[in-house]
Amino acid sequence: RAGSFNLCFSVTWGLADKTFVRTEKEGKEQNKGKEQFHQNMISSTVLFYGTYVLCLCLGLLCVVFVSYWNIEWRGGFAWDASFLQFNWHPVLMVTGLVVLYGNAAILYRIPFTWSQRKQHWKLVHAALLLSSLILSILGLCAVFDFHTGYHIPNLYSLHSWVGICTVVLFTAQWLLGLVGFLSPCSPLGFRKLLKPVHAWMGMAIFILSLASCLSGINEKLLLALNGNSNSTAAYSSHPAEALFANFLGVLIVAFGLVVLGILSNQRWNRLEPGEESSRKPSLKPQTASNAGGSTST
Ligand code: HEM
């Protein structure tokens, strides 16, 4: 009896001991997983803010460069249907449809906004886009007035076709967004359906506005730097204005790439209710079978 008791005791003790060792190991692995998750979150946030600062700097440089170009080489600004009124066109289009629009598009990606009510940020997003729309419409008025004043035909170039389509699509997108996401009577099913279309259209409009700006800069340089008058050199002779405006184009491309990079990075997506679990660390301990597949990014 004493022998069998001893055997039973040592077997039970041995099992308890093994279980204790295993739970201790699992606990350590869980902590390690959590730590790694937090480190990933911190490095992802730091990387975001670094990219965001770069985006703000490039946006500011685009506005400064397009304004300086028109002040230094194109004679400045006026609103009198003259060449000087035309000069508002590039400034307002770059500021509105590229810089403001790009910043409005990445607003939900800023981690600082995630802990706050989405409704507030929806209003900020809509207000930024409305300012962008107003600036673009003013920019179009500037060029249409100038064309009318000088009896230049409207909408003859590829630039003007792409440009007008961009502004029409943007207006439609803004109105649909207002009805779909900000109107209290918009049904949830409709919002869910609209969201991916809205995000895709938003990117498409941004790409179209980048294309409009690049073709516009190119067209302006070809028209203005024809080398026929004494005051302007030919575009092909590398005058300072052409180099400066080409560099503006490069800045616009760089800004566009940074915005599109932010938009396409899934780790910088705002978490919607119910999606939290997909980025939290797995509470299951890592085993050889699941270690390779699970990443807490
Ligand atoms: C998203 C940005 C832009 C959009 C949507 C846009 C749109 C337009 C539209 C619709 C017209 C035709 C106006 C008319 O026919 O009366 C036009 C004309 C013009 N734009 Fe832009 N534009 C943009 C940016 C720029 C930029 C950055 C420049 C650089 C200087 C520029 C240069 C011109 C020039 C030279 C014309 C007159 C010749 C033409 O009709 O093609 N545009 N633009």
From TrEMBL:
Major localization class: membrane
Cofactor dependence: heme b
Membrane topology term: Multi-pass membrane protein
SMART domains: B561
Transmembrane regions: 46-71, 91-111, 123-146, 158-185, 197-217, 243-263
Keyword Transcription: no
Molecular-function annotations in GO: metal ion binding; transmembrane ascorbate ferrireductase activity
Enzyme kind, highest EC tier: translocase
Alphabetized UniProt keyword annotations: Electron transport, Endosome, Glycoprotein, Heme, Iron, Lysosome, Membrane, Metal-binding, Oxidoreductase, Translocase, Transmembrane, Transmembrane helix, Transport
EC number: 7.2.1.3
Pfam families associated with the record: Cytochrom_B561
Region (Disordered): 273-297
Subcellular location: Late endosome membrane; Lysosome membrane
InterPro entries cross-referenced by the UniProt entry: CYB561/CYBRD1-like (IPR043205), Cyt_b561/ferric_Rdtase_TM (IPR006593)
UniProt GO cellular component terms: late endosome membrane; lysosomal membrane
Catalysed reactions, semicolon-separated: Fe(3+)(out) + L-ascorbate(in) = monodehydro-L-ascorbate radical(in) + Fe(2+)(out) + H(+)
Biological function: Transmembrane reductase that uses ascorbate as an electron donor in the cytoplasm and transfers electrons across membranes to reduce iron cations Fe(3+) into Fe(2+) in the lumen of the late endosome and lysosome. Reduced iron can then be extruded from the late endosome and lysosome to the cytoplasm by divalent metal-specific transporters. It is therefore most probably involved in endosomal and lysosomal cellular iron homeostasis.
Protein name: Lysosomal membrane ascorbate-dependent ferrireductase CYB561A3
